[in-house]
Specification:
It comes from Arthrospiribacter ruber. GO terms for molecular function: pyridoxal phosphate binding; transaminase activity. It contains 14 helices and 13 strands. It has a seven-stranded mixed β-sheet, sandwiched between helices. It starts with 14 loop residues before the first helix and ends with a helix. It is of the alpha/beta class and 387 residues long. The chain has two domains: 137 residues, Aspartate Aminotransferase, domain 1, CATH 3.90.1150.10; 221 residues, 3-Layer(aba) Sandwich (Aspartate Aminotransferase, domain 2), CATH 3.40.640. The chain binds pyridoxal-5'-phosphate. The site of pyridoxal-5'-phosphate has 13 residues, from helix 4.
Length: 387
């Protein structure tokens, strides 16, 4: 064997993969751990979605390979979903590409646009996959800081001072993970004109617009976005279907065609019953989303109580499925998470895993039942002060 590809040295084992082994060990030793770390929806999809999946799976002829662009009805459902919820019109034939989760879209888009050495603007803090995929392709990560002092929006003056000549792609994501900062159309407009000015492909990653957000937004609501932007969206969080792996890439015809070409070399379509279930999910009415948000809202109030008890600072006017909290100065996210795990058997995510600007923060997930959060509160009350 003559060694692994050089690119494998560019990425490490995912923090959660390492830490969850410790969580498992503690549990096996008789210390059940309350996991507030991971954004994995624990609520089920709408019953009609499961019904469609079951009915479709019972049909013997539904188990073969599927086309690379999904069935036409799926693309039509995605297009109608965009029209109904975002007032955005996209052609189901040419401007929408169903994906096996939006995470794979990050790879497909990067593979479509990036050559080795190209630069990519990546939000810091932000979803770690933007950076890891960039590195896997031999391109260069150029982090741009998102700070609380600027409402977690990009500082365009600072960006303009940089050499942007080699930047080909820019990732952005609102509601922002991990801070929960909400999308703002004026910020989308600034992103679009920045991308236009510097000839950068702007990719908006939009998986959280249906979680605790009263008015879901799309980058395509910003004027001129259709020329320079792509959007990724997903049923993982909006419809409690993370394990199903259903996402979509939306944007101009020539770009979607090129991404489809790349994707067609990587997978062999999406299981038909999953597509049928996804169509049902996108037709569900507002009430269901509201009920889901009531559950998340109640959990969030308890997490706020929990965070207050720990002496942390956080914003309340946020969207998405996390509470992003600032630690007292001098404590790193990693230290905090280790102490919380050791003393209270509670696991959460350190801010540093989302980038250098995440230093001194922690992220609590709302994908956890109320009784568990109440249990976590009791644990902290009984061992307070934890630091
Ligand atoms: C910001 C962000 N983008 C993309 C994803 C991936 O979502 P999907 O399940 O659609 O691949 C996640 C998942 O946690 C995320 O937080």
């Amino acid at each position: 064997m003559k060694g692994f590809a050089k690119r494998t040295a560019e990425v490490g084992e995912y923090y959660f993969s390492i830490k969850l082994k410790e969580v498992k060990r503690l549990t096996e030793e008789g210390h059940p751990v309350i996991n507030m770390g991971i954004g994995n929806p624990d609520l089920p999809p709408h019953p009609s979605v499961i019904g469609e999946l079951q009915d479709s799976a019972a049909i013997p002829s539904n188990h073969g390979y599927q086309g690379y662009q999904g069935i036409p009805e799926l693309r039509i459902a995605m297009s109608e979903f965009y029209r109904r919820h975002y007032a955005v019109d996209k052609d189901p034939q040419s401007e929408i590409l169903p994906l096996i989760g939006s995470k794979e879209g990050i790879m497909h888009i990067s593979m479509t646009f990036l050559n080795e050495g190209d630069e990519v603007l990546v939000p810091d803090p932000g979803y770690p996959t933007y950076s890891s995929v960039t590195k896997l392709l031999g391109a260069k990560v150029k982090p741009y800081a998102l700070l609380d002092s600027n409402a977690w929006y990009p500082d365009f003056d600072l960006l303009e001072q940089q050499d942007l000549s080699q930047v080909k792609l820019m990732w952005c994501n609102y509601p922002h993970m991990p801070s929960g900062a909400k999308a703002d159309i004026s910020v989308f407009e600034k992103l679009v004109s920045f991308a236009k000015k510097h000839q950068i492909v702007l990719v908006h990653d939009n998986p959280y617009s249906f979680v605790l957000e009263d008015s879901p937004k799309s980058i395509f609501q910003a004027e001129g976005a259709e020329e320079v932007a792509l959007e990724l969206n997903s049923l993982s969080k909006s419809s409690n279907m993370a394990g199903w792996r259903i996402g979509m890439a939306i944007g101009r015809k020539d770009w979607i065609a090129e991404i489809t070409k790349v994707k067609s070399n990587m997978d062999s379509g999406m299981f038909l019953p999953l597509q049928k279930g996804a169509i049902a999910a996108m037709g569900i009415d507002e009430d269901w989303f509201e009920q889901k948000n009531q559950v998340y809202g109640a959990r969030r109030k308890l997490i706020w109580r929990f965070a207050e008890l720990l002496g942390l600072e956080f914003k309340r006017d946020t969207a998405g499925m996390f509470v992003w909290a600032k630690l007292p100065s001098g404590i790193s996210g990693y230290q905090f998470v280790d102490v919380l795990l050791e003393k209270a058997h509670i696991f959460t995510a350190p801010g540093e895993i989302f980038g250098t600007e995440g230093h001194g923060y922690v992220r609590f997930s709302l994908c956890i039942a109320e009784e568990k959060i109440l249990d976590a509160i009791k644990r902290i009350e009984s061992i307070k002060p934890i630091f």
